[in-house]
């Protein structure tokens, strides 16, 4: 990690909060696999997929085609503003009753031909309403998604730069 910029006058160090989240090595019982249809151009597919855990619920709310906007809670976070706007789909997910300190991770996203859908971004990870921006293969008709929910670990420390 690299920190750009300078300390404020009178400051001698940075206090850093670092969160650690596992990205692989999950046990099978830690994973949820579900399949969703890829929406046709200009459409939004409402979803009802739901995963119940001991203290967490994961609900897939909707899957939007490129350039298709959500309404309600996902209106502002569910639109892809980056490159390839005509190729990136938006998957709206809601966590309940409380998202923190748990983290939702998309472990794998493959289509019916086992081609990997590229995860462009996971937006609003600290909030109950989250969006995964995915770029599947052009000819894909469905995605098999594998999720994990895990408790994140945080560490605080002080870093003092050398001048």
Q: What do these coordinates show?
A:
By secondary structure, this protein is mostly beta strands. It has one domain: Immunoglobulin-like. Helix content is 0%, strand content 47%. It contains no helices and eleven strands. The strands form three sheets. Strands 3, 4, 5, 6, 8 and 9 form a six-stranded antiparallel β-sheet that branches. Strands 2-10-7 form a three-stranded antiparallel β-sheet, with no helix packed on it. 21% of the residues are buried. The mean pLDDT is 91.
Summarize the structure.
It contains no helices and 11 strands.
Give the key terms.
163 residues, mainly beta, Immunoglobulin-like, three-stranded antiparallel beta sheet, 11 strands
Low-confidence stretches: none
Radius of gyration (CA) equals 18 Å
Query: How many DSSP-defined strands?
Result: 11
Q: Specify the biggest β-sheet.
A: 6 strands, antiparallel
Principal-axis shape equals: globular
